[in-house]
Amino acid sequence: MSRCMNLVGGIKILNRNFFVKIEASNVFLKKTYSTRELLKEAYCRTKLKCRSKKLPQDVNPKGVFACNELDLTEVKVYGFDYDYTLAHYKPTLEHLLYNLGREILLEKYNYPAEILNLEYKPNFAVRGLHYDIEKGLLLKLDSFLQIQFGAVYRGLTPVTTEEVLKLYKNRIIPIAYVEGDMRAHKANRAKMVHLADLFSVPEMGLLCNVAEYFIKNHIDYHPEILFLDVKNSVQSCHPIMHKIVAQNVEEFIRPNPSLRKYFQMLQDCNKKLFLVTNSPFHFVNAGMEMLVGHDWRDYFDVVIVNANKPKFFTEVSRPIRVFDKNANTHIWEKVTALQKGIIYYEGTVKQLQDLTGWSGHQVLYFGDHPYSDLADVTLEHGWRTGAIINELTHEINTLNTQSFKENANWLQMLTQLIEDHQDYKEPEAMEVMSQWMAERDFLRNEIKAVFNPQFGSVFRTYHNPTYFSRRLFRFADIYTSNITNLLDYTLTHTFYPRRGVMPHEYGSYFV
User: Fold this and answer.
1) The last residue of a domain, from among 218, 247, 276
2) Is 83 annotated as a binding residue?
3) Is residue 457 part of a domain?
4) Of which family is this protein a member (predicted)?
C-alpha cells in the first residue's frame, strides 16, 4: 500500500509507520493507530478527493456517437427503415398494442375474462431484456451473459438472488442456453428470447401482467405457451393497429418538422435515398404524409414495403414485385428496373443491389433493430449502418443530472477504495469493509433506479454494457436518438470513435 501523508500544521502522520514526528522539538513519540482508524482516514481522504473533482461535462442528447470510424464523404446512398427510425411513436401506441393483444388473448385463445382488468404499466419493462421461455422469467443480461441480480422478474414480482442462483446454478448463463447451439448435429433451440425492439415493450408488459394474474390466482401455466400466445396475439393485431394509426396519425406519431429539411439536404447534395420497411404502404404513407408532406415519395429513389426483414437481407430467391397502391395489391410482372415513384413489395437486398448498383461502404442504412435492420447488411454486404435509439434521450438526460454524476463518480472511487484495501483480514477491518460494500450496493441500486426502477439502463448493467449494447456496438457504425440529429453535421463529416481506456491502460476515476 502506498504511503499517504497528511500535513496538518507541523505534524506529519505517516500511515502504516505509526510514528508521530514533532519537528519543532525533534522528539519521537510512539503512537499506534488501529486498522479501523486507518481505513476511516482513507475513506475520508477519498471522499474529499471526490468532492474536489469537477463533475463531467454534460453529454449532448442530440449527439451522434461513433462505434466505428465513418467518413460521410464516402456515402452516396442513404437508406432508412420506417418504424422507430423515421416515425417515432407516442406512448399511445404502446397502450394500443397492449389493449389489442389483450383482446386477442380472450377471443382467440380463451384466456380468462378478468385479464381485461389488467392495465398496461408503461414504465415496467425496457428494450433489450431476455425472456426465459423455460423458466418464465424476464431478466437482464450483460455483455458477458451474466444475470443482473435485482433485475429478474416472474410476472411483476422480483425474484430474489437466492432463487435465481438456485434456478440457474450460476450467475453466468451458457451461450447455448441464450443463443442456441448451431454446432450440434441438430441445432438446439435457445431457451431465451431477446426482446430487442420497441414493439416488444408492450408485449413484455402484457406477458408479465398475465403471468402475475395466473400466479396470484394459483392458475398453472406453461411459460413457453404463455409467451407464444402473447407474442402471436400482439403480432397478429398489427394489421388492426396499422389501420387505427393510419386514420389518426397525430394521436400516435410524434411530429418531426426537421425530417423534410434533412431529406432536402441529402437530395440537394445529390445523394440517393431509399426506404425498406416491413410495414404496409397505406400505414407508411399516412405517417410520411404527416411527417414530411404529401410529396414525400419525391425524395426517395426506391421505396420497398412489406419487406419482411430480416428475410429481405438473408434470402436470395424471393422476387421483388410492383405494388399497386390504388388496388392495394401487387402486380405479377417481373421487375427488371427500379423506378422512382413506384412502390415495391417484398424482394431481397441482392435484387436491390443488382438493379441499382448500390453496394458496400457507399450505402449507409439506418434502422432501430440491431439484428433485423443492421446485422446482416454490415456483416454480409459491407454497408455502413446507423442505429436510431429513441431511449437515448432519456438515458442522456439522466446521465446529465448532477445527482447522477456525483453518485457515479463516488461509486467509482469507492469501488477503487474497496479494491485497494480488501486484503485487510482483521475483524475490525472486515467490519469496515462490509460497511463500504453496503454503501456500494446502495449506490449501484440508486444509479440503476433513475433509469428504470425494475431494470435500470438499456445500455448497461451495474458496471458492464448490456447484452443489447454489445449487439448495438458491434453492428452499428454510429447511433443517435433521432435521424434529424444529423442535420448538425455536414455531409463531409467524419465520425471518430472515442479512444476507450482498456483495463490495462491508464487508470482514471472519471473515464
Assistant:
1) 247
2) yes
3) no
4) Belongs to the 5'(3')-deoxyribonucleotidase family.
303 and 335 fall within a common domain: yes
For residue 87, the cross-strand partners are: 83
SS3 386: strand
Instruction: Kindly report the number of other CB atoms within 10 A of residue 212's CB atom.
Output: 16
Taking the C-alpha atoms of residue 246 and residue 401, their distance in angstroms, rounded to an integer, is 38
Q: Which residues lie across from 329 on neighbouring strands?
A: 324
150 located within any domain? yes
Note whether 209 and 333 are same-domain residues: no
Catalytic residue selected from 81, 142, 376, 477? 81
Query: Running DSSP on this structure, what letter comes out for residue 34?
Result: -
Instruction: Confirm whether pTM is higher than 0.70.
Output: yes
Q: Are residues 378 and 351 in the same domain?
A: yes
Q: How many domains does the chain have?
A: 3
User: What string of pLDDT tens digits covers the 511 residues of the chain?
Assistant: 333 434 233 323 333 333 333 333 444 444 567 888 899 999 999 999 999 989 999 999 999 999 999 999 999 999 999 999 999 999 999 999 999 999 999 999 999 999 999 999 999 999 999 999 999 999 999 999 999 999 999 999 999 999 999 999 999 999 999 998 755 545 568 899 999 999 999 999 999 999 999 999 999 999 999 999 999 999 999 999 999 999 999 999 999 999 999 999 999 999 999 999 999 999 999 999 999 999 999 999 999 999 999 889 888 888 999 987 765 666 667 888 999 999 999 999 999 999 999 999 999 999 999 888 898 899 989 999 999 999 999 999 999 999 999 999 999 999 999 999 998 888 999 999 999 999 999 999 999 999 999 999 999 998 899 999 999 999 999 999 999 999 999 999 999 998 777 777 765 544 4
Same domain, 377 and 259: yes
Report if residue 79 sits inside a domain: yes
Is 373 flagged in the annotation as binding? no
Beta-sheet pairing, 363-367 with 77-80? parallel
Q: Which of 58, 83, 420, 488 is catalytic?
A: 83
Annotated catalytic residue 298: no
- The label of the residue with cell 427500379 reads 338
Answer with the one of 346, 364, 388 that is the final residue of a domain: 388
Asked whether residue 112 falls in the same domain as residue 215, the answer is yes
Q: Is 83 a catalytic residue?
A: yes
Give the range of the structural domain holding residue 380, as residue numbers without chain letter: 65-88+253-388
